[in-house]
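I am writing to request your help with a piece of structural work I have in hand. I set the record out below, with my sincere thanks for your time.
___
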Amino acid sequence: MDAQGRGRADDIDPADQWVLNPNTGEYELRLTPSAPQSSVPGPRRSASRAGAASRAAGAASAKGAAGAPGPARSRTAAPGPGRETRPAPGREVPSQRRRRGAPEEPPGRRGRRPVKQKSKAKKALLWTGGVMAFVVVAAAAGAYLYIEHLNGNIQSISDDGASTGGFQKDKAINILLIGTDKRTGAGNGSYGDKGSEGHADTTILLHVSKDRSNATALSIPRDLIVDIPDCPTTQEDGSQKVISGGTGVRFNTSLGQEGRTPSCTARTVTELTGIKPDNFIVADFNAVKTLTSAVGGVEVCLAKDIKDPDSHLDLPKGEHVIEGEQALAFVRTRHSVGFGGDLSRIGLQQQFLSALMRKLKSNDTLTSPTKMIKLAEAGTKALSVDSQLDSIDKLKDLGLELGKLDTKNLTFTTIPVIDNPAEKVKATVVLNEKPAQEVFQAIQNDVSFTDAKQQKKKEAAAVAARLKGTKADPSEVRVQVFNGGAPAGSAQETLTWLQTEEGVTKSENAGNAPATLAKTTLEYGPDQADQARRLAAILGLAGSAMKPGESVTNSQGLPTMTLTLGKDFKGAGVPLTAPTKAPDVEKSTADKVKCAS
């Protein structure tokens, strides 16, 4: 029975406001109750559709469409594949009437019965169901419109053939991040060079390994002397123009000067490093301000007081959370740190980007819808991207690939350089050829600067070490047992087994855990490692299930460990350690012939 018929019966289901249209084969949302429907089995049509069909095809065909016998509808749901349909209880389908010889009812009178008056509660329920269905549809439409809105925010710049054509999910990724010092945007004119076209002021080549286990962020000094190649460039009117390059010029002139666009910076990076970027992203002063504000600020640390009149940074020694104008001042500061030059400022910028990356990946950001929306707005408005990365879908895919990276395996480094020997007053730098080429080759060959695989081995060794050492006597083991996803009664079952079979008498049933866990875990305090090792041996726990942390207090006021049984729990006494080798059973392999016996 569809929503129209059900609206006149006792068992109104708001979900049935979605009604199967027999003419189109699709479900439609009906929020307005229609005229009472016949309960005769067969295709349902609204009064307006049936009337239109009658006027168009004539009385005879209308009778065939509206009154012909047909399959009965289920009272609980519209029929679908694999679902059995039956007539309503107490009703006969026309074929049953013919078999017992009874005359058929006239089409216009078949199945009529009094319509019950709906109670106010039923009417309210019907109305609520319709409203909720409308809200779902409206929300979906709103999400689509918001995505379109974000797409409209994105500013794209032609890559002019300087990129690989876009990153690929099954390959290593090279993204060129370009920070321009162009003074566009509210409040940025006060920083000087107000009419400048901008430069490639801060440039980082981000290499993400093919397996996404590690990444290298290679800073390129703005005062590095390089050769800029000729750059085919798309003009504002869509025409093409080749902008002449330069020999022995500052790297930062690869953008803005002589009409050069970010694609020219990308070509310069390829010429310098031998690495062709997959995509480029351009950020201006506003990007720093709006992105940091969107995430609620980032944490930075100063080893000394800084008061820089040029960047307007004024912060005392110590840790700080910075955002907006203060964040911009931080990344622009150079005269008050290190040797007062660009290389010293690069260290500050790398610290800032590390902090921003940590904040972006933190639960504080990822679980906050408000921050995520602000971040989406800020990112799409403040960042410009190349023409191969010009939609929310593409940016989302890139974000998902970068999201696989563990921040501890992201290395920041700078191209090895030396002071320019041709200058008496040291203002520029040149490549330190041997170590610089080694860095370029390492990135070209997808070599990790953090040795992530070795790091994983160290972590595995540390986990295995948790199981090594002295073990307390079972009678000295104190533990509270929680059920965090195991079958009901598992905590009590485990408690009984520990006390009666294993001698762990100082154990308690703590009931249900506050959250569901996929894996069983044992958390213990610093002075409970020997107890934890004993309990892990009894339970057959792997080292990865042991979580050094804090102890809790049991019913006697004593420090105790916490055992939380997860979804992987198979029963008291069943080891949870995964086998390291196959059991010794009778077996055969496909490369050998074995005669049946």
Summary: The longest helix spans residues 120-153.
